[in-house]
Design brief:
The complex is a heterodimer of chains A (854) and B (630). Chain A has 854 residues and is α/β, with parallel strands linked by helices. Chain A is 43% helix and 18% strand. In chain B, helix 11 packs across helix 17. The chains are: A alpha/beta (854), B alpha/beta (630). Chain A: GO terms for molecular function: ATP binding; hydrolase activity; single-stranded DNA binding; single-stranded DNA helicase activity.
Chain lengths: 854, 630
């Protein structure tokens, strides 16, 4: 438990001890007041007592007023002179007696926390009078009731403890999540009440924390949810009581460390750190962010234990405003200054300060991220490390800064922090292969409608591709390819048949002349996708792409620092200057691009990380200008093993014809005189595009239909046939997989759950276009897939064999000479062969090999 | 003066009428009106010119600055109530525009008062505009007559102004003097620094004497007051990091702040103190530095500045400034001719290079098309003599012309040592600035002639990459350690190099000196001193003004340009690419603008093409001379 833990444990201690150590002040009128009133007064007075307390109580000191202003409820109190700090620092704080309770807290269950607060401060007597005079009007029904004030409304709130408790118990007993998903609730029966099963889990595992999704609560009872959000300090302890009662009813023999603590999470009210404002003070909020720093554990003294040196009388003193008032006189023997602090009998609680920074996605452009301080308590200490993305649920606090204890001046600025109740790591699930976006990104209804409407349009595919990087001219097919890459195929799991995951991501390689805005396209994609990485082949090393192990300077432990590929898991990794990458770096990509994992064995850390990333790479030809007389492989000098892993390889060339020039010129000139607004009108907003893609990626998961699979089979067979006529293989299963992915992705563009023939058609077309560009054998003009799969076209291979034969014959005919002159040999061959001009190239390349072989 | 009194009247205790939601708006309006009246603006002392200790606390000041960092929003008591311990009288106060809740000797703040209103405000860490030229400071100071509210004696300052001017004319002397006369009032920075440090030391009697506070200026060697600007009204969302602001507000140098500081530091040894564990010592130092070093300004009025040139009216859209613009437009062409002549001399008689330099100086990123910035015109002036003071003098001249500039010496050591990219320091929770954190329309002059053989280490490589990104995309990726954040910028980059620069550039002009002066130093100095200050001011207005003009291309010319391009491609397929068209269009744009024309005419287009042809021919020629080196 978080802050709950710190404050509550202190308070609980108070409860236990109240009568003995502080029996002083129950004033006569209180004692005689009817129970209902008494409870009220108790509460209020104890509040007064707690108020000056150091950690959260200070909040209590002024925030009530905030609330007073902000919430008009309950109106009848508004005129009362009593500040309504009740709702804030009330003793009902959301804690339950924590670990301090020895054994099982069954007793604690019976004595619900509220009743255990007889800790009467004497200071607020005047107020009680006011209270009593003011209250009855509000709750006449209650006042008349004799049953121990069961229906009281907590001060300053509209929370009725009993009904709240009952409602929550009903929630626990009855709630069945209609939207439950298999993955989230492993091992739970979806048709049984969810939280009862959770309680059973608690019984078995022994971790006394019950996490409650506020979303569930909201769908069950709006009012209950609202109360929780507005008055977490009062409502959560009520929930605790409820949960504990149910639990110990069901499992009376269960032994837990302490009482069950309810931890709500996923409060919908606030999601963004930037939206926090004074209205959120003392409310339950959930914000997302990234942990940037965590302090060491701070043992916070909650209660000091003093022992008299003379008579061994012991006493406990609670911390007050960060100070311990050391008793100067022993109450027992009246010796002056005889009390000594016994450290190991004093009470401490764990506390940790954590800095949370706004996640980069939430930040408006051009501003620096905000940070907020979190305080984690007890077992939440060290739950998160710097760098973790977390969703934090907690209570927002503001504390005034006192300049000087002795001076009355106060800096008029508050310090704010959040007392953490619940952490939820947003990226922890990435290891399990569930798309977290489904949880992360929430679309408003209108947005969803809009997106669906967009998807209805017949030309949505063209529209989207036109919206992609509008400043880059033409290259329609390339844009379409990238669009499909952004959507990605459907994820399939064949692990039970032993093949593991099928790759759903589409990899694309762009190659072509320098200055054809390849980098610009990459930059655009990198800016578009939420989890994109941009690296340049020249500067990235293998470790920079994968992961490296380093010693953390603070903890001196080995930690794994992830590189670009791992960071772009579920995103797109843009690699510029792919050709400039060195051999070892490239070899890393082999695994990533097909298996989508990354194996690391370094410094004793052996692991396999997920790297389900699409790769968008750009490569320049080796001779700086694309040589149309050469094949792709020859032009970019990349190993074919790597090339064959790209689904689509596009050439970006300067087309050089007049019509193109004209259009290009028009486009460019327009770029220079159009105003910003005009541009926006013309094209789809980048944000819309981004949302569209996110939506499709997270909600649409198309499956192949019968016709589509037939069409795919046909397409594949056709592709094979082309080659078989000339005695070569023109398609491999890999190409079929590519086709499937592309077709699926195209179906996603349409928000369609089924892959239909039109998707296959488009996939075929695009694939063919790409092949036409990249796999055409410049010598024969035939599209030859083996250029990409084996690095050499069939004709070239044939020629090579011929050449080898000729050479062999030639050398054999020469008889046994120790060495051959290259030039002479060349001339001889030239004399024999007609095709020398073509062979020449190969000879130059490989003469050494041949000569040594022969 | 009257503003100050007004200020006191407005913010003094006005509490009895209760919390009035309109109150704040009224104050803002009131000041806006008042400041418009008869040059009231000039009567407000500026923190840029007047040393801090001459300013009265809680008086109205103005400050021209750049937002360097944004701290977290803070909640404060908008309205609070004090209780007199003797008479029990309750008085409510406004907490706005102040740091500490004030109360008398017998009063105590009632933290539980129902009157209490919590409000929110945002703190910006502001520094003076990085690289602000000396002339900007002087002129803006001269314009603002020193207000009587400060005890700052104008006569002394007058002298220093003259001295400054004197130094302007002999820039080389400036440096020596600068170092020499620390005691002189001239540099507001140094003497102030000394004094403030003394006073700071006086105020915080800290046993653990901490190292001097790093004020986090982007550029090394900068001086001037840094300031925590507290923006109260809701519009702070519209301000961004690196924006240039002019703020009018209440200066707060409440010693309470410093006491709080030292007090907390004392306490920080005891881990149990509840407040201290929220912030580390470093954070304390950064976020609440002694007020004597980093004053606070509680903003009443803040406006984004389009430019910092004091010779131009601050806002060009207003009526009176329109007449200013149109009157200046009349004499535009003689000014341009003069400037061209001046720059031609400065570039040793090369008029083509001078022409391009003008185009470069008026270029600005006017739009972004997804990732592509439009309107940047990075000039690479190649052919600069190596190891001579020529490049330095070129920078001096540019410094005289543009309001903000920085001379980046690209030596191996510099690249490896200095920090270009701002990065987030999580311990102190602030953005540590870097050289590339520059305000919009700053001129960055990179001197590549100083580059020697050597090895760039990791930092060096990062720095060069960052420079490249800055030039190509006009953005800098700030390092937030767990992720990077992209900040768009608008910086004019001029690269002086011997051969082709290793950094990308939009346009390379090879310098062809016509005259080789025997003594470069003398030549340049005489050149500067020959220009009348009034002419120099015209140049300054010219360059700043033209950047802000709108521009369009008519349908007709568009057609012609398209035709032209197709024609060019036909004739010369290999060498004309889309990039060339981009560049020519840019040249045409700035060429038109430099003549004060806001639309492209056919003649300008042809002239642009002609300029490009000459420039390319020159490059070709150079290539031939150097053999196939490139």
């Amino acid at each position: 438990m978080s802050s709950p833990a710190s404050t509550p444990s202190r308070r609980s201690s108070k409860r236990g001890r109240g009568s003995s150590s502080n029996p002083a002040t129950p004033h006569a009128d209180e004692v005689q007041s009817p129970p209902s009133q008494r409870r009220r007064t108790d509460d209020s007075t104890s509040t007064g007592d707690l108020q000056p307390m150091p950690t959260s109580p200070a909040v209590g000191t002024q925030s009530p007023n905030v609330q007073d202003v902000l919430f008009s409820s309950p109106p009848q109190f508004r005129h009362s002179a009593i500040p309504l700090e009740f709702d804030v620092s009330s003793p009902l704080t959301y804690g339950t007696p924590s670990s301090r309770v020895e054994g099982t807290p069954r007793s604690g269950v019976r004595g619900t926390p509220i009743r255990q607060r007889p800790d009467l401060g004497s200071a607020r007597k005047a107020r009680q009078v006011d209270l009593q005079s003011d209250m009855p009007a509000a709750e006449d029904a209650v006042a008349s009731e004799q049953s121990l004030g069961q229906k009281l409304v907590i001060w300053g709130t509209d929370v009725n403890v009993t009904s709240c408790k009952e409602k929550f118990q009903r929630f626990l007993q009855r709630f069945i999540d209609p939207l439950a998903k298999e993955e989230e609730n492993v091992g739970l029966d979806l048709n049984e009440p969810l939280y009862l099963q959770r309680l059973e889990e608690i019984n078995m595992v022994g971790e006394p924390f019950l996490n409650v999704n506020c979303d569930h609560l909201k769908s069950f009872d709006e009012n209950l949810y609202r109360q929780l959000i507005c008055y977490p300090q009062e409502v959560i302890p009520t929930y605790d009581m409820a949960a504990n009662e149910i639990f110990f009813d069901r499992y009376p023999d269960s032994v837990l460390e302490h009482q069950i603590q309810v931890r709500p999470y996923n409060a919908l009210k606030t999601r963004n750190m930037r939206n926090l404002n004074p209205e959120d003070i003392d409310q339950l909020i959930t914000i997302g962010g990234m942990v940037i720093r965590s302090s060491q554990l701070i043992p916070e003294m909650q209660e000091a234990f003093f022992k008299c040196q003379v008579c061994a009388f012991t006493t406990r003193v609670e911390i007050d405003r960060g100070r311990i008032a050391e008793p100067s006189v022993c109450k027992n023997c009246n010796t002056l200054h005889s009390m000594a602090l016994i450290h190991n009998r004093s009470m401490f609680s764990d506390k940790q300060m954590i800095k949370l920074q706004e996640s980069p996605e939430d930040m408006p452009a051009g501003q620096t991220p905000h940070t907020v301080v979190l305080f984690a308590h007890n077992d939440l200490v060290d739950k998160v490390q710097p760098g973790d993305r977390v969703n934090v649920t907690g209570i927002y606090r503001a504390v005034p800064v006192r300049v000087n204890q002795r001076m009355s001046n106060v800096r008029s600025v508050y310090k704010t922090h959040i007392d953490v109740i619940h952490y939820r790591k947003t990226d922890s699930k990435r290891l399990h292969g569930i798309d977290e976006e489904t949880e992360q990104k929430m679309f408003t209804e209108e947005r969803m409608e809009m997106l669906k409407e967009l998807a209805e349009k017949p030309d949505i595919y063209d529209r989207l591709s036109a919206a992609l990087a509008p400043s880059i001219y033409e290259h329609e097919d390339i844009k379409k390819g990238i669009l499909l890459q952004l959507f990605g195929g459907s994820r399939k799991d064949f692990s039970h048949t032993g093949r593991g995951n099928f790759r759903a991501e589409i990899n694309i390689l762009l190659c072509g002349d320098p200055g054809t805005s390849k980098s610009q396209l990459l930059q655009y994609v990198y800016n578009l996708v939420p989890r994109g990485q941009y690296t340049s082949g020249k500067v990235s090393s293998a470790v920079g792409l994968t992961a490296y192990v380093m010693k953390d300077p603070e903890t001196r432990q080995l930690v794994l620092q992830t590189g670009a590929l791992v960071l772009s898991d579920n995103g797109i990794c843009c690699i510029d200057e792919f050709d400039k990458m060195n051999e070892s770096t490239r070899s890393v990509l082999h695994e990533v691009m097909e298996q989508q994992t990354l194996s690391i064995a370094k410094a004793g850390i052996i692991c396999q990380l997920n790297a389900r990333t699409s790769i968008l790479a750009a490569a320049n030809p080796i001779e700086s200008q694309w040589n149309p007389k050469k094949t792709t492989i020859e032009n970019i000098q990349l190993p074919h093993t790597l090339l064959s892993r790209f689904d689509l390889i596009f050439l970006m060339l300067d087309p050089r014809d007049e019509a193109y020039d004209r259009r290009l010129a028009h486009h460019l000139v327009a770029l220079y005189y159009q105003t910003e607004e005009q541009m926006e009108e013309e094209f789809m907003d980048m944000a819309v595009l981004r949302d569209y893609i996110t939506y499709a990626r997270s909600y649409v998961n198309p499956r192949l239909t019968e016709e589509a699979s037939q069409a795919l089979i046909e397409a594949y067979v056709d592709m094979r046939k082309i080659g078989s006529g000339r005695g070569m293989v023109s398609a491999y299963p890999r190409q079929l997989e590519s086709l499937i992915r592309l077709a699926e992705s195209h179906a996603k563009v349409r928000f369609s759950d089924k892959v239909e023939t039109i998707d296959v058609e488009e996939a075929k077309r695009l694939h063919r276009e790409a092949l036409k560009q990249s796999a055409t054998d410049p010598r024969t003009g035939i599209v030859d897939i083996s250029i990409l799969t084996t690095g050499m076209s069939a004709t070239a291979r044939k020629r090579k064999e011929e050449l080898a034969q000729t050479l062999k014959k030639l050398i054999q005919s020469k008889g046994k000479t120790p060495a051959l002159k290259y030039q002479q040999l060349f001339d001889d061959i030239r004399a024999q062969s007609d095709a020398v001009s073509l062979i020449f190239v190969y000879l130059r390349w490989e003469n050494r090999t041949y000569i040594s072989k022969c | 003066y009257n503003c100050i009194t007004l200020w006191l009247a407005a913010t003094g205790r006005k509490p009895q009428n209760g919390p009035n939601p309109d109150w704040e708006k009224k104050v803002t309006e009131y000041f806006r009106e008042k400041l418009k009246e008869n040059n009231a603006v000039n009567w407000v002392p500026s923190l840029n010119d007047v040393p801090l200790h001459y300013l009265k606390p809680n008086s109205l000041v103005k400050f021209r600055c750049m937002v360097q960092d944004m701290f977290d929003p803070e909640f404060y008591m908008g309205v609070y109530e004090t209780v007199d311990s003797n008479s029990k009288a309750r008085v409510s106060h406004f907490g706005k525009y102040r740091d500490a809740a004030e109360c008398g000797p017998h009063q105590e703040i009632d933290l539980n008062s129902s009157q209490m209103v919590t409000s929110e405000r945002q703190t910006f860490y502001c520094v003076p505009v990085p690289g602000e030229s000396a002339w900007v400071k002087e002129i803006s100071f001269f314009q603002a007559r020193v207000s009587p509210s400060t005890s700052y004696t104008p006569s002394r300052h007058k002298r220093s102004y003259e001295e400054d001017e004197d130094m302007e004319l002999h820039p080389s002397k400036q440096k020596e003097q600068h170092l020499g006369n620390v005691g002189d009032i001239h540099g507001y920075g140094e003497p102030k620094r000394l004094e403030t440090e003394a006073s700071a030391g006086h105020q915080m009697i800290t046993p653990n004497c901490s190292p001097p506070l790093d004020l986090n200026f982007p550029l090394p060697g900068e001086k001037g007051p840094a300031c925590l600007v507290k923006v109260i009204y809701e519009s702070w969302d519209s301000f961004k990091v690196n924006d240039i602001l002019e703020v009018y507000g209440v200066l707060s140098v409440d010693p309470v702040l410093s006491i709080a500081n030292s007090k907390e530091r004392e306490n920080s040894s005891s881990p149990l103190a509840p407040v201290e564990c929220m912030e580390t010592v470093e954070e304390q130092r950064v976020h609440s530095p002694p007020a004597s070093l980093v004053p606070r300004i509680h903003v009443i009025l803040a406006q984004k500045l389009q430019h910092i040139n004091p010779l131009l009216p601050a806002c060009l859209s207003e009526q009176e400034s329109k007449s200013f613009v149109s009157s200046f437009m009349l004499e535009l062409s003689p000014v341009r001719a003069e400037l061209l002549g001046f720059l031609t001399h400065a570039l040793l008689g090369d008029s083509l290079a001078a022409e391009y330099l003008i185009l470069h100086l008026i270029s600005t990123v006017y739009a972004r098309r997804d990732v592509l910035p439009l309107g940047k015109f990075t000039l690479n002036l190649s052919g600069c003599p190596r190891n001579s003071i020529f490049t330095e003098h070129v920078y001096r001249i540019i410094q005289q012309l543009v309001p903000a500039s920085y001379h980046l010496l690209m030596t191996i050591e510099n690249m490896n040592r200095s920090r270009f990219i701002p990065h987030k320091d999580y311990t102190a929770n602030r953005l540590v600035s870097g050289v590339l954190q520059l305000a919009s329309s700053t001129s960055l002059v990179i001197d590549e002639t100083l580059l020697q053989q050597g090895q760039l280490d990791t930092t060096g490589v990062h720095n060069v990459t960052a420079l490249g990104n800055l030039i190509t995309w006009q953005k800098v990726d700030y390092d937030f350690s767990y992720h990077q954040m992209e900040f768009p910028c608008n910086v004019n980059v001029l690269i002086t190099s011997e051969g082709r620069s290793l950094l990308p550039s939009d346009c390379q002009v090879h310098l062809q000196p016509q005259i080789i002066p025997p003594n470069m130093e003398e030549y340049m100095n005489s050149l500067l001193s020959a220009v009348l200050p009034s002419v120099l001011n015209k140049f300054r207005i010219y360059l700043s003004l033209l950047r802000m003009l709108d521009y369009s291309i008519s349908e007709e010319v568009t057609k012609a340009v398209e035709e032209d391009f197709v024609e060019m491609r036909k004739n010369d397929l290999e060498s004309i690419t889309a990039d060339d068209l981009h560049r020519t269009l840019l040249v045409a744009r700035f060429l038109s603008l430099s003549a004060g024309q806001t639309t492209l005419s056919r003649e300008r287009w042809l002239r642009a093409k002609q300029l490009e042809t000459v420039r390319k021919a020159r490059l070709q020629q150079q290539k031939c001379i150097n053999g196939n080196e490139l």
